[in-house]
Amino acid sequence: MRLWAWMGTLAAVSALSAAPAVQAQTALTKGVAVTSLAGAVGTTRDFTLVVPSGATQLSFALSGGSGDADLYVRRGAQATSSSSNDCASESATNAETCSFASPTAATYYVRVQAYRAYSGVSLVGNYTAGGGTPATVTLQPGVPVSGQGAVAGAWLRFRLDVPSGATNLTVRTSGGTGAADLYVRAGAEPSASAFDCRPLVVGNEETCTFAQPQATSYYIGLYGYQAFAGVTLTASFTQPPTGGATWPGFDAYYVNAIGKTGVALRSALNTAAAHGHVRMSYSAVWDALKYTDEDPANTANVILIYTGRSQAKTYNASTNSSDPDAWNREHVWAKSHGFPDEGQWAHTDIHHLRPADVSVNSTRGNKDFDWGGSPIAEAPGNLTDADSFEPRAAVKGDVARMMFYMAIRYEGNDATGVGNLELADNVGTSGNLFGKRCTLVAWHRADPVSADEIRRHGRIVERQGNRNPFVDYPAWAEELFASGCP
Prior knowledge:
The chain is α+β, with helices and mostly antiparallel strands. The protein has three domains: 4-130, Jelly Rolls (Sandwich); 134-238, Jelly Rolls; 250-481, no CATH class. Helices cover 19% and strands 33% of the residues. The chain contains ten helices and 27 strands. α6 (396-409) packs across α7 (437-446). The two termini are 44 Å apart.
C-alpha cells in the first residue's frame, strides 16, 4: 500500500490526511465504460456493480488519461484506500486492473482515488455471465467503445448490425495494455475455432475488414490472450445510399408534399397516405398476405417477418389453429395500441400486417420496439425483454417505416375509427402511443429500403390502393421523426 506521506509538499499531505468527502455512488453497467473521469489529488469517485450468481471472470479496469488514479474494489461494502479491500491496484500510472476469476454474487464497490490529480480516465467493469456466455453489447456504427478490459482467458462480446448495401466494414482494436485478440464472425458468435477474421498480431492494434459485408449482425469477440485493459473497439461501415425517391411516380403523386417541412409536410403526407385506401375485411387479410409476402423463390410460400423462414401459404393459423409453428397475422403496430376492433381501418391495414410464426408473434406480444434483450431461440437475430422487442437486422428498417406510416396515416381526423397514433420516446407505452421513436429512426438509417421492400410495397398498393410515403421517399422520416435523435 502506498504511503501518502511520500508526497512532496505539506499542502498535499494535508489534503490527503483529511478524510475524503462522501461521494454519491454511480452504478456501472456491465461492459460499458465510464469515461472522462477526473479528480484533484486525494479525491475519490465511488461506483457499484451488481454481479449475478454464476458469473465468472469479473474484472475492473482503469485506463487512459493523465495523472495517477488508483483502483480499490471490495465485495459487499464500501471500498477504501485501507487494507480491507478485496483488491487494491496502485501502479504509478492509470493502468489499473482488479480481477476475480470466480466472484461471489454480490454488489461490488469500486473506488477511484487520486494519488495525483488525474483527468481523462476510463473505468469499466465486466464479467462473464452464468453458463459461460458473456452478455453481448450492441455497437453503434463508428462510435468507439473505450476502456475495455478482461482477464486472461475471458471473452468480451459485441454485435454490430450491418444493413443491406453497406460496404467497407472495418472492425478495429487499439490502445491499452496487455494482449486482446480480435475475432469477427457474421451471423453467430465467434470462437477460437469459428470465425471470419482473426488477425492475431502482437499488441492490441488489430483490424478486420470486409469490402462487401453481408446484411446481417456481425458478432465481435475480444479474447484475453493475456489480461488486458484500456482497449478501444471501433466498428464502422460505409452506409448505403439513402433518402432519394424509390418510385418513378413520386413527383406527380406527392406534388403537394414536395418542398414542405414540419406541420405542413405532415398534413400533406397524411392526405397522400390516405389517398385511394380501400378497407378490407380481417378475413381478407389472409389472402392479401399470401400475395404481398410471397417468397419470390417459391410462390407456394410466404416469408415470415421475424424468423425469415419461407413457409407454405397453407400452413397458417386459419387452418392449423393449435400449431405454434403455423403463421398468423402480425400487427407490427400492436392492435391493442389504438385499434382493437376489426371495424377500425388500422386493424386490417396491410401496410403493417405481416406473416409471423405463431409462437414468435406471441413472444413479441404488444411490446414496444427497442434495442436489446435475450435471444429468441426460434428466431435468430431477434431479441426481447420484459418491455421491448428487437427484430432481426434485415427487417429493422422495414419495421421502422411501417411505424412511421401508421403515425402519419392515422391522426384521428377522418372516418377510419382510429384516433391519433403517435410514436413515443420511451417503452412501456399504452393507448395510442408506441415506442421507441429514436430507436426506429436508427433502424431506418441502418436498414435502407431494399428491392424486396419495394416489391412488397407495390403489391400492397395493388390490393389496398394507398402508398407508404416513407418507402417512396425515405428522407421524409428524417424530417418528421428524427428531431433530437443522435
